[in-house]
Write a structure and sequence with these properties.
InterPro entries: Big_4 (IPR011081), GH (IPR017853), Glyco_hydro_53 (IPR011683), LysM (IPR018392), LysM_dom_sf (IPR036779). By secondary structure, the protein is an alpha+beta fold. It is built from 21 helices and 50 strands. Strands 1, 2, 3, 4, 5, 6, 7 and 8 form an 8-stranded antiparallel beta sheet that branches. Strands 10-11-12-13-16-17-18-19 form an 8-stranded parallel β-barrel, surrounded by 5 helices. Strands 39, 41, 42, 44, 45, 46, 47 and 48 form an 8-stranded mixed beta sheet that branches. The radius of gyration is 36 Å and the shape is globular.
Length: 1122
Amino acid sequence: MDLYRYSDTYEEGFGFSTRDSGAGNNTTTVWNYYSATAQNLTAATTVTASDAGNYKASFLTAGEDVTGTISLTAGDRKVSADLTAGGWDVYTLAETDALTVEAGTKLTITISLDIAAGGYLKIDDILVTKASDTEIQAAKKVKAEELQNLITEYKALNESDYTADSWKTLQESMTASENFLQALNGDYTSTTVTEIEEKITNLKKAKDELKSATVVKAGINVEKVNGLTSDFIGGVDISSYRALKDSGVKYYDFAGNELDDARFFKLLKDSGINYVRIRVWNNPYDASGNGYGGGNNDLQKAVDMGKLATDAGMRVLIDFHYSDFWADPAKQKALKAWADMTIAEKTAAVKDYTMNSLNTLLDAGVDVGMVQVGNETNNGIAGESGLENANTTVIFRAGCEAIQQVEQDRNKEIKAVVHFANPEKQNYMTYAKALADAGVEYDVFASSYYPYWHGTLDNLKNQLNEITEKYGKEVMVAETSWATGLEDSDGHANTVREGNNDAGMDYDFSIYGQAKELREVINAVSEMDKGIGVFYWEPAWIPVKVYDENAENAANVLTENKAAWEKYGSGWAASYAKEYDAEDAGKWYGGSAIDNQALFDASGHPLETLKIFSYVKTGAETAKKISTVKNADAIEIELGSTFTLPETVKVTCSDYTSGAENVTWNAQDVAAVNTNAAGKYTVNGTVSLEGETYQTKCVITVNPQNLLTNPRFEDGENAWILSGTGIKVLMDGKDSKDGNGYLHFYNDSDFTYDVTQTITLDAGIYRFGGYLQGGGNLAADSYEVYVSVDGKPQTAQGELNGWKNWSNPEVQNIKITKDGTKVTVGIRATASAGAWGSWDDMYLNKTGEVTPAPVVTPQPTATLTPATAPETESSSADKDTSAPVQTVDWNTVTSNVQAKIAEVTQNPNINSVNMNIVCSGETRLPAAVLGSIKGLDMTLALHSGNGVTVSISGQDLKGTALNALQNIDLTVDSKARNIPAAVAASKKAEATKQLSVKDTGAFPVTVNIHVNVGAENSGKYANLYRYNAEKKQLEYCGSFPVTRNGQSVFALKQGGDYMVTVTAAQPKETVYFNSGDYAVKAGDTLSAIAKRNHMSLAELKAKNPQIKDLHKIRVGQKLNLN
């Protein structure tokens, strides 16, 4: 948290201020906090008790729109007190009960704050004090009275409502508590506050562990929700059902019988569901009749499904979006037919459309009990923006009046519902006030609640209870859901998947977690002052055909699924929707994004959680089982650092308990983690429990050094210069990629901003980028990262793809030619009104060196000896013995070659010529040079240092067509250590040497590599191996008897990472290196294949013209890596 001097302007953040002389307490410094957005904050410190005694914590607070506590903790014992925010400079004392501790005990004071948007708080006199004997006796009396009140309360419970065992445990605890109080007989000198608190805790625990006598045996554990009324809504949104059935999806009952339409809806009813929600779009089709997808939910589909629900004994909620496709907080697009209407015309159209549609539904026999006027209407409705806008509220009023008119005409109760999302932003009272001020009459205020987006249930309860308290409205959750796993089963990426909405959650991604989430949401709504029910969103949106990316038929299944999504609208969007919603559906159309959140499995069989609305009324239990074995927390290290894998991973169970279990990590995976090479490495592991083996993994990221200061904004604005409007650093973590800090932008009018940092760099190749998320933008908006070197900018465009859907703009190949160059990196935007989002995790990395080109040694001379590699100082040394690097002039090389040709032809004593060229860094040999020696007894020897030389013979070029060649990359890194130590150690040898040759595929000409392994190894064998990164193994290339001066030579087919070993005898190998075709494996991507084979993605595509889409490959597909 950033501390700064407080000012009267009340900047956002923490600060200190001095009370004025007229303040109610004193004029000392106080701690204050103001927040423009809703935030949860915690601060803590620890002190030591100087002697034994009873201690309590207290503080004074003043402010508004803040709740919170101060607590005092000693070990596992804790006492707390709620704060009071009574207004400006009205200070109120909050004081905890006392804890009895021994001398030297560590006492932790924690202040927890829940601040609404615009809330502020002043804190003073944070104290830990030793309580007096009088105070302690009074505290004991209060606690004893609390214990007696619990006994009295629990005696009123009915034994018949609970199981015998749990009732017995409660009675035993009550008897023990009564005996304890009777023994005290009002004299508390012989006991302590802590002892009485322990009695209270034990009694409450026994009460909480009472099991309902109605509990049923099931496949999941569900705690009974007490007090549910018979009319409490347990609903499901089944809108996609008809499109899925048209696509060929089959559903089954719990006995495995295939269901027709009528029996499917009866299954819902028999499972405890009493309401069905169906969305309606006005005209979700293009001019040719092609559906936009998402169920193609026109009015006729609502009639068909609504009648099925009614016939099964369920009521229906109709969800009018007043749009031709999806309406949500990011978009409220007017339907095509209303696009050019005046607000008066549109208002009349809303009223007429609503009345006519409802009458059509009722005439068809659909039991409509509720009607939504809009869907997640935070930012508008029917193409009108902002609830403060009169044009918006008049639409709400027209919709509600239409419902009420039909209700009156039909003499049938139909509740009008308004629907909003994002309770975590704490704006619901603002919305309710806008509706009330505009005279909008409605019955139910509904909220969406998805835990991975929408904050805590306590906050949801507070938000909706405020609506009830102020405006008397009923409240409910209109949408919620939870995933049973992170896997995709239809070929379209899911909302909840690995790396996206899968961290920091209270529930497992399992069927047990799904049951727990649903039960807790139902319980929270039932505890609200006027909570009437919960709807689960799209429980039957499963794959048309089950897709497994590792299966042989994966490509065919995905093709069939895509065809169904397009033809029947059974995916979230079809390509035809781009004419209506180009920015969202037009880019991301496809299948279901929630197939892993259904209440049916991927094949259409119901999960136990389908019965959740029944189970919450009785309770359900199952034998304790393993729920999930968690993956280890990801590890991030800097280049060259070490890492330690955890010894245990978290295991959760079906009863919602958890523990740590030992994990065995795969040794080969561990050895393959190259901490000297940036990248992501996956180490797989196994956990053995109860005779079963479970898989887990740990992802280790080796980060290149980030040269930016404060790249994640965890230090606020430090090192960054912000200019423009609508841009600031926030620290609440809500829109961050990692951590708490992020760069937030929003403005209610068109705006621009520019955020920069200047840094001094040495010569090299660099990249600069970061991560961007958000929405509300227009096509003309621009969001970019840029780098300015000597006033010349390089830029990369980012995209706003929705909340927490991060794009990664990156400027690559930033070339700095001089040490000490000042470079400015930046983030800038030209944005339209209402655009919102955030930047986070910026980075500036060095990705390569700027090295002078290779040079020719002065005047190459003819020699009668074959090409050899220079000697090293010893067999184990890797000293660079090459000459100083100068600039290579390949034209000079060619001229010198031609001069030597003349010399050879004139001197019969010269049989061959070696042209020795010293090369360091990147070496690209022009085809013209090769052409000058083609067919001649001349050899080009390229010396890279450290006893390694690459050569090409003119004799070997006979018959080689050189006209198509441009240059050959023969860059050698003789200092490389890219082969994992464990893999290298698998070859037993007297000496080893590693090197790396730039891999651009198979060489088009014959290339030899000469390696000096030391004269002391004369008579032994030098053996060449190439490292296969995919298989994590060394592949044998050949052996060579070491010459008297320590030389070995090998034919080199292709670049890559190599190791030369020295052995007394020639090894007998079975694993050989063969360059050529590669068969795509499950999990492969083209970029990963290119990286493993040391080539760019463009080079890989050039070798494989059959690749049409860089993002699509199929398992088994052959790729040319030569």
